[in-house]
Amino acid sequence: MNETVDNPFFARLWTVMSTREPESLRRLRRQNLAGLTGRVLEVGVGTGTNFEFYPDTVTEVVAVEPEIRLAEHAKEAAAQANVPVTVTTDTVEQFTDTRPFDAVVCSLVLCSVDDPDQVVRSLRAMLRPGGELRYLEHVAGTGARARLQKVADATVWPKLLGNCHTHRHTERTIENAGFTVSDARREWTFPKWVPLPVAEFAIGVAVRS
Ligand SMILES: C[S@@+](CC[C@H](N)C(=O)[O-])C[C@H]1O[C@@H](n2cnc3c(N)ncnc32)[C@H](O)[C@@H]1O
User: Fold this and answer.
1) In the chain, fewer beta carbons within 10 Å around the N or the C end?
2) Minimum-distance ligand 1 atom for the alpha carbon of 92
3) Is the CB of residue 112 below 6 angstroms from any atom belonging to ligand 1?
4) How many CA atoms lie within 13 A of 112 on its CB side?
5) Element spanning 190, H or E
6) Ligand 1 pocket test: which of 112, 126, 161 has the largest number of ligand atoms within 8 Å of its C-beta?
7) Which atom of ligand 1 is nearest to the CA of 42?
């Protein structure tokens, strides 16, 4: 079980990066949260970049962020949010709540947990029947990009970027956890020719049946 997340370099970097996101990514964040209602769990919220995009039909967001430097920023963002947001510094592996959630949000986080299969299964168990996992995650590519991702993952990328892994088959992980995927697509946040390992995103809605 992952009990702590302590990434001082990444926390400083992400604090800057999250204020300078391309409009293409901000648009996907908005789409990922559109139409949500009720009680929502968001996993690994970082600086709380998603908070401004929650529709007012959401009654409560429980926000998990174990990196304490990022959690401080998330608490500031929570105070400005249009919906009630509570930030907890548990890891997702530690987090428990006896009341089921209407939705769970994962954005740019399943790349960073040690065991995504286990985490997604535990998130499914925290949803009410019919509840939704909303995901927006960069994913494994093919061809030259896949080769670039594998090299990145085997060298400095996870060490510098808070355990981020670029070559993960996250859609498969979600399906294998027993979700029914009702809406799924791939999007590019940078032109395809840009040699970045994290330009292709999967966005979708997965339902706990
Ligand atoms: C790339 S950032 C993305 C932040 C945010 N989800 C967003 O969309 O901007 C990854 C986040 O996952 C968090 N994280 C990493 N491991 C985690 C874990 N085991 N449990 C919960 N959060 C975790 C990190 O602290 C970091 O805030």
Assistant:
1) N
2) 20
3) yes
4) 26
5) none
6) 112
7) 6
Evaluate whether residue 3 is within a structural domain.
no
155 CB-near residues (< 8 Å, 6+ apart): none
Q: How far is residue 77's CA from residue 75's CA, in Å, rounded to a whole number?
A: 5
CB 170 within 8 A of CB 139: yes
Please write the tens of the pLDDT for every residue from 16-40: 999 999 999 999 999 999 999 999 9
Task: Tell me the residue range of the domain where 38 lies.
Answer: 8-207
Q: Tens of pLDDT along 107-146?
A: 999 999 999 999 999 999 999 999 999 999 999 999 999 9
Residue 103 falls inside a structural domain: yes
Residue 205 phi, psi (nearest 5): -120, 125
Binding site membership of 118 for ligand 1 (Cβ less than 6 Å): no
Contact 133, 123 (CB under 8 A): yes
* Domains of the chain: total: 1
